[in-house]
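Lecture notes, unit on protein representations.

Consider one protein chain, 275 amino acids long.
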Amino acid sequence: MSVMPAPENEVFAANRASGRIALAVKADHGVTRRSRIREEGPLRVRCPGQPSAELEAVILNTAGGVAGGDRFNINIWVPSEARLVVTTAAAEKIYRALDDDAVVAINLKVAAGATLAWLPQETILFDGARLARTIRIDIDRDARLIIAEAIIFGRSGMGETVRHGRLLDRWQVYREGRIIHAEALRFEGEIGAKLSAAAVTNGGTAIATVLIVPAEESFLIGVRALRFVGEVAASAWKGVLLIRLCAADGAALRHDLVAVLNAVRSGALPRLWLN
C-alpha cells in the first residue's frame, strides 16, 4: 500500500518555529550585568566581552532565518542606572512564505536613569516574504533610548530582487504611560513596483529608521552636517529625534547608518557591526 506524500503546505506548517527571549539586567556598582534570562525555541542571547558600565547582548536565531508562520517574541527589561546595548549576530533573513505571516513581537522597557540602545543588524526580506512585526517601548521620563532598525529588500549583491510580499511594521513608544511616537509601515502585493516610485524609495532597496529619546540639539546638527551615500533626513520635536535613511542597496545603507549612529551615540558600536 503506497502512502501519498503530505502536501507542501502541510510539510512547511510542521516545521514552523516558535521562539522567545526574556532578558533582564541589573546595575551593580557601575557595572551592568545579566539578571535573568529565559530562552525558548531557536532564540538565544549571549553577552560577550568583559564586565563594563554598558552590557552588550547579542541575539542569535539558531534556526538560520525566519519563515512564514514562525512566531518570535523578545522581551527586554533595563532597570534604573543600567546600560544595555542589544544587537544581533547577523542580519536576520525573512524567507518566502506560502501563506501565513512571520510574526515578531518586541517589547522593551527602560526604567528611570537607564539607557537602552537597540541596534540589531539589518532585516533582509526575500521575494515572497511575509512579515508582521510590532515594537513596543515603554520608558520612564529620564530614561535614554536609541533604536535603529534597517530593512533591505533582497540581496542585490547576489542578484536577488523582491517582486512581491508583505511587510507590516508597527512601532509604539510610550513615556510614563503616554504615547510619544507611533508609526506603521506597510508594503503589500507588488513591493518591487512600489519601491520604484519616486515618493517611496525611487528604486532604492534599503531603508532604515533611527529614533532617539531624549534628543539633544547637537545630535540634529551633527547628523545634518554629515555626508551620505544615500538620502538621509532628520527632524526633532519635543525631545524626540527621528532619522530616516534610504539607499540604493544594503552596503550604502550600512555606510550611512554607521555614520549616523557614531554621531548620536557616545559609546562604540557593537563589535559585530564592525566585522
